[in-house]
Amino acid sequence: MQRAYDVVAEDYAKLLPDTRAEAPLDLAMVDAFAEAVTSGGDPRVLDAGCGAGRMSRYLTERGCQVQGVDLSPRMVAMARRDHRDLVFTVGSLTGLPYPDDQFAGVLLWYSTIHTPPAGQARIFAEATRVLRPGGHLLVGFQSGTGERDLARAYRQFGHEIELQRHLYTADQVAAQLQAAGLREVCRLVRRAQGTEKDDQAFLLAAQRI
User: Taking every annotated instance into account, which residue ranges of this chain make up the domain Methyltransferase (predicted)?
Assistant: First the structure.
């Protein structure tokens, strides 16, 4: 996965410079997350799996104090290039380079989708570890079952990579959140739109106080 995103990073940053790919319902969930975080008086948010930084920018514009982390050094380089006022770090979702209780919010925006089922628990455990009591987590992902091969999508841009996407149902992700010690606040599942091949799901959860 790291190698694949290192290869496609520059084209990815060009194709997705902002939130134009998100539907209004998707952004409504991000807005609800930002409001939940900032209304608590602590605006610190971790954009975990930040890619080229577009969601970090979106959250910053809504009053969050954002740091981004991503496994791909090239993606982090793109984020630093395009968002010079924000802080981005190379790191793994399964071993976040932050102390416990560091953030009031953690965003996992389509950043869990390349991890197979056996690795999901570790991601949510780490996200919970760095989340302070009462903090919020928002996860976005394609909803369904099975896997999708993304190699063909990037081949049109001249990239030969290996990259798989795993689909999960909202109930499966909710169970992972609960096992990590979080309580579900709300969820949204919407049908595929435009060129999307799968439904999209978003779960907002909170750390118990």
Answer: 45-135
